[in-house]
Design brief:
This is InsA protein. This protein has helices at 43-54, 59-66, 70-79, 82-99, and strands at residues 11-17, 20-25, 31-33. It is α+β, with helices and mostly antiparallel strands. It folds into 2 domains: 1-36; 43-99, no CATH class. It has a 3-stranded antiparallel sheet with strand order 1-2-3, with no helix packed on it. Strand 1 (11-17) and strand 2 form a beta hairpin. The protein starts with 10 loop residues before the first strand and ends with a helix.
Length: 100
Amino acid sequence: MECPNCGSHQLQRNGYRSQIQCYKCKDCGRQFLETYKQMRYSEEVKHFCIRMYFQGMSARSIEQVTNIHHTTILSWLRETDVDVLELLCAEQHSIEKLEL
């Protein structure tokens, strides 16, 4: 772990805040919280889930298939840009033409 301000590794534990360990940098004096890396999914996985949703699957059904929590899928749907939705609709339309 390193100080987010100066990059130093000279850290001292400095109590807790909301059950998360606090640290104080011995070099610059800045106090900060221990952080964890967020789990991130690729754009490809997000688009796959969104496509499945617009093909009629529920968020919970997608959760069962992908093992991605349904609330995560719903948040992706809320933040989905109109351009992505148009792209998905165009892609679906081109697939239907190929099947005919």
